[in-house]
Write a structure and sequence with these properties.
It contains 37 helices and 33 strands. The two termini are 60 Å apart. The model is unreliable at 8-61, 149-156, 214-219, 474-492, 523-535 and 1054-1062 (pLDDT under 50). Helix 22 (781-790) packs across helix 23 and helix 27 (873-913) runs antiparallel to helix 33. The longest helix is centred in the last third of the chain and has 41 residues, at 873-913. The relative contact order is 0.10. By secondary structure, the chain is an alpha+beta fold.
Length: 1108
């Protein structure tokens, strides 16, 4: 839910994302001429727009062929969507007036504040699951067979398949329901007239006053973390409404008549417009509300006691508006089996028509046609769906039981094979690749550099410097303190000592920041916002630092470690403590915050003891290089630190006289009062001060990576997976992490896409980018939006050719949009991995979503298909489990189809021998037993097969590349299995008729026995690594069949049981029966084994080379 801060406020609110394509179009001549990918189309001259031809869009012509090949599914889906849209009219979002603590005064009914990740409800479950069946490969077969069926024995397995699918979906739905119920049952403190009460999250309403207690010494502000919203773990400052902050007690919020007017719910998480009005005063008090007064849902209060009024709830919060609805994901393997099953269904119909045509279409031929369709229905075995679903469950169980990736959870049991087909991996940065824990690594002064092992030298210099200041207070210049205001005229430069330069550098780092020290309180606040300063512990152990950047916090911590400690700060002053315990007070005159455009921040302070005024500035090297005085080492050292993966900051200083500052302040205040071009005028005034600044030092901070990130990324690259990093962090930070994690290798060039805002700029920048080869791309979210608006296809085509892509300042919606574009333009399988709430849309949009349970909560983990605890686990998850799942399902699916095709071939041979009569060869019991007891366990044991050991798959990730080509399941392998089935079915049936011509009454027992033995041998021929359960399954199935021959002999005769056709038990124990059945089985299997041996010897697959 979203709240507006009333008193020292901070809590949760909603989430938003930038609007899509709201910028007005460029002139028509650019709109009509999209960018082309030819060499002639890429010229730097903007006049070339006039010669660029229109991009061609290939649209399928819709006709009968389109309808038969899948258009019917599109039409059915469109009809369902239209019906759902009519039934669920979307409520128009409007601005609202919210009265403080009075939900009953709300003019409209707002949505319930409940999280819902479920796909169905009690009314939509059956239709929803049925829609999955419609899109599956069994739909055409079911539809036709239900029309043709006469006997019940065929419809029962079909109903069983539907039941299995519903049970699987129901189990997943119950798990989602339980997770949602746990989240919706969390308790929050609600402020009422009678005091505090506990209320469930789902019971919070618009207008409620919610309290979040984190008892920390703060004034009228608080800090929040938005990592679940935009991926940034930086703490952001939020400010309370001034009017309510002046109330003497919290309970007085109910004694005033006030309301909040808020804009309608929208996607943008970076803006908010509203007003706070208090009516019971004369005149009325009206305060403007902005983003600084709000707390969106999915944010965390880092410090402060928050009392806020709820503005948005449930579906209208920013986080939900930026989250896509959960959809049913269908694996690529299922789609491929769908196409193969369509071919089998076509073959079934054609074969039935041929049988009737050979008869001459005499008599009731259409009845015979339906009979043949039912007889050949085993070409598409019903057990295929059951075996695949059971196999998916087995893969999930194996993943969760793997001791090498503890804590892994499979939340979606329908797509484990997708882990073995991935081409693009889109990953978040903060919390996924990095731990977001900064460590100070390097301080460079130009002539000397200090690392982690020499920090004690800096500490000694600081101690000596302030010891001299204490003993000789009049000798300020000798101690390296700020020069006097009266000595501003240029004079001969005096080379400062190392101790003096270190002192100046550390002092600048300790002053130039936006860090606030916070002290935990041991008092308990019960409803009243009272000052607890008397109970505060101001010791170093009780102090924590808050800032909008973890870099700044680490820099301040480092200055504390070397002796200069920040002990207090407010809006106008700050205090430092020296190693000797002396307090240095500074008055903050001006602060120039960091922006992505300026890439730097500055502060002007006056030291109270001396009255000296100093202007300190720090920022990126690209921004500071032109500001500082000439030097010959900055660029080189920045490059060296960047190659080490360090985040660099250049620190500079400029001393100001009182006259200089007063002149600047007058011009600065005048610029801030301007109505037109205020931003440009303010920037110009500040830049007038940023000239010839003294370069003090260069700092290097390392963002610690997750464990084994570098080898894991290298493993994925060697496996042929292209990695894109999508982050909401700054461009410089994203680029630095890309280098330190080796996402971008040291030898690769990086093309940083310049900020663009128009079509012309996008065209020129794409031209420049296209001419670079084998370089990584770094682009911001704003530039990406412009490119996708005008040159979507061209940009994606260029980006896909890069070895790595980094997208910074991405909103959650943009992340999901990038995933969707890759799926549409490349037709490859995508995987998204993240750990924050801002990654949920990306995870749900990808073909396979992986969530990490980390510091940013479980929101991404709960919404993902697979949940892991560390990024390094993704290597084994893909290389081992993904690879095995795909190869096993491919083998299992084709073998089950082979099992159906071979018995259908035998039926076709039998019918053709007996004048194309539509008489079944085997009775219903044998057909059911053939697909279950006699062959199910050996065939299903293929889910335990593996071609190489897990260690070998991790050692040679190149094996993964073959999977993306789909060679384990293709039309080529399918045709091979068809030929094998036709050969074996023909051999089994013709050999049974020829060798047992005198014992024709026993042809069922003869052919069926040979069929069972052939299937068991084919399973053994297919297995590459034996497991003890496979051996048990083989002998168990053989024992079940032998028991059936002995005790169910009435089903092995020709004709109906009522006619007395029984199997003679003495016949199956004779020597002729045994050797003839063995010969038939040998003829059907031995040639295949010889062919497989020769192929393995002269053209072995890659995995067999490693196995040997």
């Amino acid at each position: 839910f979203t709240i507006s801060i009333l008193r020292s406020v901070s809590f949760m609110s909603d989430v938003l994302c930038p609007r899509r394509y709201s910028v007005e179009d460029e002139p028509s001549n650019l709109d009509e001429m999209p960018l082309m990918m030819s060499e002639d189309g890429f010229e730097n001259d903007e006049s070339d727009y006039q010669t660029l031809p229109r991009a061609r869009v290939n649209q399928r012509r819709r006709g009968l062929g389109w309808f038969l090949l899948g258009g019917w599914k599109v039409l059915c889906g469109s009809c369902c969507d239209c019906l759902a849209h009519v039934c669920r009219r979307k409520k128009e979002l409007k601005a609202r007036t919210v009265w403080l603590g009075c939900p009953e005064k709300c003019e409209e009914k707002y949505p319930k504040n409940a999280i819902k990740n479920q796909k169905y409800n009690i009314f939509t479950f059956v239709p929803g699951v049925s829609r999955i069946i419609i899109y599956s490969y069994f739909f055409l077969f079911f539809k036709f067979c239900f029309i043709c069926e006469v006997c019940v024995c065929v419809s029962v397995p079909q109903g069983f398949v539907l039941v299995v699918t519903m049970v699987r979906e129901a189990v997943d739905e119950v798990r989602r329901y339980r997770r949602d119920k746990e989240m919706n049952s969390q308790l929050y403190s609600k402020l009422t007239v009678r005091g505090k009460t506990q209320v469930k999250s789902s019971d919070i309403q618009v207008g409620d006053l919610i309290i979040v207690d984190k008892v920390i010494l703060v004034s009228c502000s608080c800090f929040i973390r938005t990592d679940q919203l935009d991926g940034e773990t930086d703490w952001k400052l939020k400010v309370a409404v001034i009017c309510t902050q002046r109330l003497p007690a919290v309970g007085d919020l109910f004694s005033i008549s006030a309301y909040v007017y808020a804009q309608r719910p929208q996607l943008d998480i970076h803006s908010f417009e509203g007003n706070f009005t208090r009516e019971d005063t004369d005149p009325q008090v009206i305060e403007s509300l902005s983003i600084e007064n709000t707390l969106w849902a999915s944010t965390v209060v880092a410090s402060g006691t928050v009392i806020g009024v709820v503005i948005y709830t449930g579906k209208e919060t920013r986080s939900v508006l930026n989250t896509s609805n959960a959809k049913n994901k269908v694996g690529l393997l299922d789609l491929e089996l769908n196409r193969l099953t369509k071919a089998l269904f076509l073959a079934q119909v054609v074969l039935s028509i041929v049988m009737v045509a050979v008869q001459g279409f005499v008599g009731p031929w259409f009845r015979n046609l339906f009979r043949f369709v039912v007889l050949f229905s085993y070409i598409i075995p019903i057990s295929l769906r059951v075996n695949l679903d059971m196999g998916k469950s087995a893969y999930g169980w194996m993943i969760m039981k793997d001791e090498n990736i503890p804590g892994t959870v499979v939340r979606t049991s329908t797509i484990p094979e997708e882990l073995g087909r991935l081409v693009y991996l889109l990953t978040d940065k903060t919390g996924t690749l990095t731990q977001n824990e900064m460590v100070f690594k390097r301080l460079h002064l130009g002539t000397v550099s200090y690392g982690t092992d020499t920090m004690d030298e800096i500490q000694n210099h600081i101690v000596q410097s302030y010891a001299q200041v204490t003993s000789q207070p009049s000798n300020g210049s000798a101690s390296g303190s700020t020069p006097s205001r009266k000595t501003q005229t240029p004079g001969p430069k005096v080379r400062k000592s190392v101790s003096s330069r270190i002192h100046e550098a550390v002092k600048a780092i300790a002053l130039c920041h936006n860090v606030t020290p916070v002290y935990e309180s041991h008092a308990i606040v019960n409803g009243e916002t009272e000052s607890a300063e008397a109970d505060q512990d101001f010791s170093d152990d009780n102090r924590t630092y808050q800032a909008s950047s973890p870099d700044e916090v680490e820099l301040v911590r480092w200055t504390q470690s070397v002796g200069l400690t920040l002990v207090n700060r407010d809006l106008t002053s700050l205090q430092l403590r020296t190693p000797s315990g002396q307090m240095l007070s500074f008055h903050i005159l001006q602060i120039f915050p960091f922006t992505s455009e300026s890439k730097r921040m500055g502060i002007i302070v006056r030291e109270e003891s001396t009255g000296d005024i100093a202007f300190y500035m720090k920022g990126a090297d690209v921004a500071m290089a032109s500001i500082v005085q000439y030097n010959d080492w900055l660029e080189e050292e920045c490059g060296n630190m960047a190659r080490e993966g360090l985040r660099t900051l250049v620190v500079a200083k400029k001393s100001l006289s009182e006259e200089q500052y007063q002149d600047f302040e007058n011009r600065y205040n005048q610029a801030k009062l301007s109505i037109h071009d205020r931003g440009l005028k303010v920037t110009a005034v500040v830049e007038s001060l940023e000239r010839e600044m003294e370069l003090l030092c260069l700092t290097g901070v390392e963002d610690q990576l997750q464990a084994d990130v570098r080898p894991t990324l290298e493993l994925l690259r060697n496996a042929g997976i292209k990695i894109w990093m999508l982050t909401g962090d700054k461009l410089e930070t994203a680029t630095c992490i890309a280098k330190s994690s080796h996402l971008v290798s040291r030898t690769q060039d990086i093309h940083i896409f310049k900020p663009i805002s128009s079509r012309g700029e996008a065209h020129l920048e794409l031209n420049a980018f296209r001419r670079k080869h084998d370089c990584a791309l770094v682009i911001s979210g704003d530039s990406l939006e412009v490119c996708l608006r005008y040159y979507e296809h061209e940009f994606v085509e260029l980006a896909c050719q890069c070895p790595a892509v980094v997208c910074c300042r991405c909103s959650p919606t943009q992340k999901a949009q990038i995933v969707t574009l890759l799926k549409q333009h490349t037709a490859n399988r995508t995987c998204a991995i993240g750990d924050g709430g801002n990654d949920v849309s990306m995870i749900q949009a990808a073909d396979c979503g992986i969530g990490i349970e980390g510091k940013e909560g479980k929101q991404a983990s709960l919404a993902a298909d697979f949940s892991i605890t560390q990024f390094k686990h993704i290597g084994r998850l893909l290389m081992v489990h993904g690879r095995n799942s795909y190869k096993r399902s491919a083998a299992l699916g084709q073998f089950v189809m082979h099992r159906g095709m071979i018995i259908s071939t035998m039926q076709a041979v039998f019918s053709s021998v007996f004048y194309f009569a539509s008489v079944p060869l085997y009775q219903g019991f044998l057909m059911v037993g053939y697909a279950t007891m006699y062959t199910m366990f050996p065939v299903f044991s293929l889910v335990l097969d593996q071609d190489v050991k897990p260690e070998m798959a991790l050692l040679y990730p190149e094996l993964y590349k073959d999977l993306t080509k789909g060679r384990s399941l293709s039309f080529k392998t399918f045709l091979i299995w068809v030929l094998v089935s036709v050969y074996q079915g023909g051999i089994l049936m013709y050999s049974a008729l020829v060798l047992f011509e005198a014992e024709f009454v026993h042809v069922v027992a003869i052919s069926f026995t040979a069929l069972i033995l052939t299937e068991l041998l084919m399973v053994a021929l297919t297995i590459r690594t034996w497991h003890w359960l496979m051996v048990v399954a083989e002998f168990f199935s053989l024992g079940c069949y032998l028991a059936s021959l002995a005790f169910l002999n009435e089903y092995f005769g020709i004709g109906r049981v009522s006619l007395g056709a029984f199997l003679d038990l003495s016949f199956i124990t004779t020597w002729p029966f045994l050797w003839k059945v063995s010969a038939i089985t040998l003829v059907s299997c031995l040639p295949l084994y010889i062919i497989k041996y020769l192929k393995r010897k002269f053209s072995p697959p890659s995995y067999s080379k490693l196995s040997s």
